[in-house]
Amino acid sequence: MKVVTYNVNGIKARLPRVIEYLAEAQPDIVCLQELKSADEGFPIAEVEAAGYGAVWHGQKAWNGVAVLARGKTPVERHRGLAGEPDDEHSRYLECEIEGLVVASLYLPNGNPRPGPKFDYKLRWMERLAARARDLLAEEVPAILAGDYNVIPNDDDTFSVRAMAEDALMQPESRAAYRRLVAQGWTDALRTRHPTGGVWTFWDYQGGAWQRDAGFRIDHLLLSPQAADRLVDAGVDKDYRAREKASDHAPTWVRLR
């Protein structure tokens, strides 16, 4: 079973690339982020024509997450995170597909920092951690998949110096990520590539793709029950090179 997380940077702008990926890679489950579309604008007809069912949580022009499953429709379990009743950002969607719980999440960027956006990022991470503890208590195979907007380690970026002041690499961001993993989650990509140097994102600016100046911010965290089934994890990097591609590449885990 191949489970993918894919920040598409706009589902409407990137729809040909998404459908192309579904046809060529044939993933079993896909978690999409940054739809940048209201619920009514989600291209469900095209997704279903490609052979996938979907559940989505959209937001006009910003954010938005979805879960796709090949040949079936995911069963929604949870939408949004508790802790801030006034938070209207569409950043978390949790579904179940044949006994596997999968959450698609889009963590706040947090820039500029210091400031309210960075404070919101850290609060959101604490809210995610609370939900993650509840999931672990269920003792089911689960995956927290998405764009975390956190560079966990120095070897997860092309340049520590270039990213030193960015919210993605601040000590507070990294500490919150470490606390989440320490609950008992397995960072699949890190487990399979322990020495780092694997990127999932390349900015559109400054020739980042051409220079391979990327970093790792898309993560798949596995509960112990899912980690027991881990076969492999990687990045379908070539899709970043295609015409009008997202600035993220599909990042995946394969489970027995």
UniProtKB/TrEMBL annotation:
Q: Which SUPFAM superfamilies match?
A: DNase I-like
Does the UniProt entry include the keyword Repeat? Answer: no
Annotated residues for binding of Mg(2+): 7, 34, 147, 149, 247-248
What CDD domains has UniProt attached to this entry? ExoIII-like_AP-endo (cd09086)
InterPro entries listed in its UniProt record: AP_endonuc_1, AP_endonuclease_F1_BS, Endo/exonu/phosph_ase_sf, Endo/exonuclease/phosphatase, ExoIII-like
**Which UniProt key words apply to this protein?**
Hydrolase, Magnesium, Manganese, Metal-binding
- Site annotated as Important for catalytic activity: where? 218
Q: Does the keyword Manganese apply?
A: yes
Residues covered by the Endonuclease/exonuclease/phosphatase domain: 4-248
Q: Which residues cross the membrane?
A: none
Its cofactor is:
Mg(2+); Mn(2+)
Q: Where is this site: Transition state stabilizer?
A: 149
Q: Which GO terms describe its biological process?
A: DNA repair
What superkingdom does the record give? Bacteria
Q: Which Gene3D superfamilies match?
A: Endonuclease/exonuclease/phosphatase (3.60.10.10)
Q: Which residues form the active site?
A: 106, 147 (proton donor/acceptor), 248 (proton acceptor)
Query: What protein does this entry describe?
Result: Nuclease
